[in-house]
Design a protein that fits this description.
5-stranded antiparallel sheet, 4-stranded antiparallel sheet, 9 strands, 30% helix, globular
């Protein structure tokens, strides 16, 4: 799931979620995740509460042995502040002229444990800095020889991304994965959210 929510007042929410498993059960759970986020996003005081309430609903109504990871980001026009919560997903990457680094690891995935708690974090992006959020289908993309694209190949791209627009940075990552797998049919999704702060805005 990649979703964009207009929260009003110059605020926008971005969600990247990934459900364990495939086929219809995974699709049903993902629809539940999207609907829940959209219903709650404007009515919770913090992103920690958003994740906790979504987790409670998935634990109550979800499917056995199914869970979802999520990174949810909240940004406001003309600000470099990014509020985010990470529920079991691989850490977003912060990229700038001085290099890149992974943000802290997230909390438990959604739908695994009733009563789980989550932490809202804040990142202040300087002009030119960006955040990259990606699904594991990027690093686990496999070519005909059975090799994974892996973290190392992705990290070779990261230092040069900060000079690009968010759109071009995302397209470069996807093109690199496509070139690696060649004619091999992808077995997982390739999902990205790229946020870049331009002069005076995110």
């Amino acid at each position: 799931l990649v979703d964009c929510l207009d929260l009003g007042g110059g605020r926008v929410g971005f969600a990247l979620a990934d459900v364990a498993g495939k086929a219809l059960p995974a699709a049903l759970l993902m629809a539940k995740v999207q609907a829940t986020l959209r219903a709650l996003a404007t009515d919770v005081p913090t992103l920690a509460d958003l994740a906790a309430r979504t987790n409670a609903i998935l634990c109550r109504d979800g499917l056995p042995n199914r869970f979802a990871t999520l990174v949810y980001l909240d940004v406001r026009d003309d600000e470099g502040t990014v509020r985010l919560v990470n529920a079991g997903h691989q850490p977003p990457v912060r990229i700038g002229g001085a290099g890149f680094h992974d943000l802290p690891r997230g909390d438990m995935a959604l739908g695994m444990m009733p009563g789980a708690t989550f932490v809202e974090r804040t990142e202040e992006l300087a002009p030119g800095e960006m955040l990259l959020v990606y699904s594991d289908g990027v690093t686990e993309a496999m070519n005909a020889a059975g090799e994974f694209y892996d973290d190392n190949r992705l990290r070779l791209l990261l230092p040069g991304l900060h000079t690009l627009t968010a759109r071009d940075a995302g397209q470069l990552v996807l093109a690199s994965v496509d070139a690696f797998i060649g004619e091999t049919r992808p077995y997982d999704d390739l999902s990205l959210v790229v946020l870049k702060r331009t002069a005076g805005a995110a």
